[in-house]
Amino acid sequence: MGVDLLSLKNNREAWFNWTAWKFLLNTAREFGWEPMGTVINLKEPPSPRKGEGINYLEKQRIKKRAEEWDKDWDGSYISNDDQIVTDSDAANLLQSLTRSINNREFLASINEDSLAVIKDLMGFLKNGAFRIS
Q: Which terminus of the chain is more solvent-facing, meaning fewer CB atoms within 10 Å of its CB: N or C?
């Protein structure tokens, strides 16, 4: 289990297991990322993935769920609730991860797999805003 990320601009997808996702968020915070908090999009329910369709009733169900959550949504990045990371938050996340891989001390403290995970997310973040599901 983990998080599926879906770009809002070009439907590019990425997946990270929970351990990797938490590592990425913690690393970004360590290098200056100040999370803005995710948002629940009330105007447009999640778009269908390739080969899937969302019928009218499903769109209404998703919108109703989002409206209920919006009342006390905490901005979490650690759930699969179709929440959105905004363009500016994604850009700040990318900047922080860039600082991390430019830090020699940090690079010496991680393995090649961890570096690959950081670079994978950095490539994805260049697309801007995305949905976490």
A: N
